[in-house]
Amino acid sequence: MKSILIATVISVVLGGILIATFSGDRGRHGQADFALAATPVGPAANATALPTKTAAPASAGGGGPAVNSGLPGQAIATKNGCTACHSTGGATGVGPTWKGLAGHDVPLADGSTAKADDAYLKESITSPNAKVVKGFAPGIMPASFSTSLKPEEIDQLVEFIKSIQ
Q1: Distance (Å, whole) CA 61 – CA 150
Q2: Separation of alpha carbons 79 and 12, rounded Å
Q3: Do residues 93 and 15 touch, judged by C-beta distance below 8 A?
Q4: Mean pLDDT of the region 34-49
Q5: 13, 63, 85, 95 — which has fewest CB within 10 A?
Q6: What is the CATH number of domain 72-163?
Q7: From CA 72, how far away is CA 61, in angstroms rounded?
């Protein structure tokens, strides 16, 4: 009997499609062969992911190792779920990458540009809808960091972002 391969999209999972593959032939124990694979793709157009309070590893994205700066801002980014949406390796995710961001011009959704200096980075953390980056939807990043982070934590986060070149 010929193997029949059926691929079924089960779910779209934050930047990936989960695919189940079944083989029509029965295995040695009468069970169908079964495999799962995650295929990375860009975020869904209507994605509205929110950071979690659980620790997540820094996202290297774009290849290469994850940034390990040792700066206090890195721990703050991980603790507050920033790296779930912002890569440190150049890949675009739910939010813009932090690699090479600091000091450069950022194209905005309204057609203007902004210099990613300390003031811009702080404003983007505390009032993320004030200047939305071109290609990203407003309202995805929570505005609660202005109250949940202390001013010195925001400064440390900015220093971490500036270190990612």
Answers
A1: 28
A2: 25
A3: yes
A4: 41
A5: 63
A6: 1.10.760.10
A7: 21
